[in-house]
Hints:
By secondary structure, this protein is of the alpha+beta class. It contains four helices and nine strands; from the N terminus they run βαββββαββββαα. It has helices spanning about 20-25, 95-110, 190-195, 210-225; strands spanning about 5, 40-45, 65-70, 80-85, 85-90, 115-120, 145-150, 155-165, 180-185. The strands form two sheets. Strands 1, 2, 5, 6, 7 and 8 form a six-stranded mixed β-sheet that branches. Strands 4-3-9 form a three-stranded antiparallel β-sheet. A hairpin with a 5-residue loop joins β7 and β8 (about 155-165). It starts with 5 loop residues before the first strand and ends with a helix.
Amino acid sequence: MFHRFTAHPSVQAFELSPPDFLARHFDASNKTRPPAPKFLATGAIVFDRPVPSPNGPPPTSDRPPRVLLIQRAPHDSMPLKWETPGGGCDDDDPSVLYACARELKEEAGLKAVSVGPVIACTTKLISKTNGGPEDGQPDWGERMGGQFFLTRRGNLVCKFYFAVQVPEEAASKVVVDPNEHAAFVWATEAEVRNKKMDGENGIHLDFTTREQFEVILEAFKMWKDI
């Protein structure tokens, strides 16, 4: 059995299985809305210490938070570029949140303690959305903060990024699968913005996509705004 984790109250909608989420929050037959994705994917934004809570204790350290980045393997697509842990949802995942926690464990060896909130992407949609859901109806998927992109085979995917909390001691316990990733770093906001790690032999951070870069910065903004 997969380990247990808690979910942020704001991500209750993502406790559905991927097929049920697609059926509830996207409508392939409604031509006034953007096309419905064929697949879902998730990304885990992991900081090296818990995200502050508005009603919780203040941070225990004055040093800036760091985010986990992993480098794609040299033989994979987008070789040696940097990203956050994540990947496609499987139809048999019990929930979208479970898929996020599963990918984090598979790609970085870390167990999620809690998942959520969503870190909304700023990607523009393929077409405009008219109106909005009626009262009492489920929110439209394209309004829920996902990133839309096409695979090399032309399939539309919607990817949702979640802030994920792991044990504080996890920073020293990251393990990447060499078949998928070559290295990992914990980067500050300044290092992400500069796309280079500090230090004499600073590693250049060439991100997989502009959207990946932007959602990481959005996560740092969330941290500061709490």
